[in-house]
Design brief:
Layout (H helix, E strand, L loop, with lengths): L10 H25 L4 H9 L3 H4 L1 H8 L5 H22 L5 H30 L2 H37 L2 H26 L14 H15 L5 H10 L2 H15 L11 H30 L1 H13 L3 H9 L4 H30 L4 H30 L1 H20 L14
Helix pairs in contact: 1-2, 1-6, 1-7, 1-8, 1-11, 2-16, 5-6, 5-8, 7-8, 7-12, 10-16, 10-17, 11-16, 11-17, 12-13, 12-15, 13-15, 13-17, 14-15, 14-17, 15-16, 16-17
Length: 424
């Protein structure tokens, strides 16, 4: 009936719906818990565990291929995400707001990780190769728009509601109810609009035992690759400074000045990190892709390493000077995020490089699990470390941790031709 649909009708909304719950789990939760009075130690510990579904995602991704269709998984997960958002909104004003909201964030995280698997697989089934290539930039653009809406507009909305209602819990509850309504709308929309590709079948092509056997073969071949330990060290430690910085930098921006923070309001944070920062991140990523495709990953590897590490110095500057000029703060965050976007290109390209060969899709999924783990582990103790030494010393420790990035990069051996555009 609707096996053919104009991709413009569903690709943008699908990837917007993919990005928004990830932002809610990883970023909006940070700001909300800070506004509700939780300590940095507790915030980073609790929210870093929410990376776990993305770490273990490869363990259940094979079963999505045989249990129901990918289309079914997409619409069902969107309904669950909507329910989880509603659950967060419902529990915030209650006496057990922390336990309740964390439980629903866990449901949201697992549903979002499963939605990622189904959506990326469905994208390849719902479009031919030409349209896949054409829409790859569009899907990433709408994912970024979801990030801006989540970190920027929705945090601004919650902040403005705080001013209007004079009630922090009620304001964040209203914002999450709005998100829940949006996802119910996504569920209804995609239920009718998503195409029904003939290849999207939930028939058991392999038994569970065969899938497990295939998984072990994939795992075995992953660890038999050349330079396996250098590759794993790179995946785990290249972003170690960012793993420490990511959550604490957000808390630093909104923490009160007597605690050593900049004291930004949620609305100001939404502008600085959720809008200006995301634009810097996006532009850096685009530039990184352009230069790597022209000259290859090996040629730009070390400039990218410097780009992802040296701009972290802006937080040392901010923590020691505590400027009240919002333009200065915006410029600093833009520089750091632009550098991170440019440097992160090397990381993503290396994951593709490492995954080459047989089982490349499954191997890439394992690489992304290490990528999530690289952010989860430092995040678990980042808040406790910051509270024990203060923001200025913490950001100096982040700079010292950059040495790990240089060490693991020096261990790599990369084909000079990888990433270059092939001549016809």
């Amino acid at each position: 009936m609707n096996s053919k649909r104009n991709p413009w009708a569903w690709v943008p909304t699908l990837y917007f719906a993919e990005g928004l719950p990830y932002v809610a789990v990883m970023t909006i939760s940070l700001i909300m818990y800070k506004r509700l009075g939780l300590s940095n130690t507790d915030i980073t510990l609790y929210t870093s565990w929410l990376y776990l579904p993305w770490v273990i995602k490869p363990l259940w991704s094979p079963f999505i291929d045989i249990i129901k269709t990918k289309r079914w998984w997409i619409v069902t997960m969107q309904l669950l995400i909507g329910a989880a958002l509603g659950g967060v909104a419902f529990t915030i004003p209650g006496p057990y707001w922390l336990q309740g909201s964390l439980a629903f964030f866990w449901l949201m995280a697992f549903s979002s990780a499963t939605h990622d698997i189904a959506a990326d697989g469905f994208y390849m089934l719902g479009l031919d190769q030409h349209k896949q290539a054409y829409f790859v930039g569009i899907r990433s653009t709408f994912y970024r728009i979801a990030t801006i809406v989540g970190q920027g507009l929705l945090v601004m909305l919650a902040g403005n509601l705080e001013v209007l209602t004079r009630n922090i819990k009620f304001s964040w509850s209203l914002m999450f109810y709005g998100m829940a309504g949006l996802f119910i709308a996504f569920w209804l929309y995609h239920h009718y609009v998503l195409p029904r590709p003939s290849e999207d079948k939930g028939i058991e092509k392999m038994s569970s035992q065969q899938i497990l056997q295939e998984f072990w073969i994939t795992l075995k071949t992953f660890f038999q690759k050349p330079q396996v330990w250098a590759g794993i060290c790179f995946m785990l430690f290249y972003r170690m400074p960012e793993g420490l910085l990511a959550k604490v930098s957000a808390l630093f921006l909104i923490d009160s000045q007597h605690n050593g923070g900049l004291g930004l309001s949620p609305a100001e944070y939404g502008l600085v990190q959720g809008t200006v920062g995301v634009i810097g991140l996006t532009l850096g990523g685009i530039l990184g892709g352009i230069v790597a495709s022209r000259d290859g990953l090996k040629r730009w590897l070390w400039p990218m390493v410097m780009a992802i590490t040296l701009p972290d110095l802006v937080y040392v500057y901010l923590s020691y000077t505590l400027p009240q000029n919002l333009i200065i703060v915006n410029v600093c965050v833009f520089i750091e995020q632009f550098g991170y976007g440019f440097g992160f290109s090397a990381y993503m390209l290396y994951l593709i490089y490492y995954s080459q060969g047989e089982h490349k899709t499954a191997h890439y999924a394992l690489c992304t699990a290490f990528m999530a783990l690289s952010m989860m582990i430092p995040g678990l103790f980042a808040g406790a470390l910051q509270e024990s030494v203060g923001y200025p010393i913490f950001f100096l420790i982040v700079i010292a941790a950059c040495s790990l990035t240089y060490i693991v990069t020096a261990m790599l051996k990369i084909d000079p031709e990888f990433g270059k555009k092939q001549q016809d």
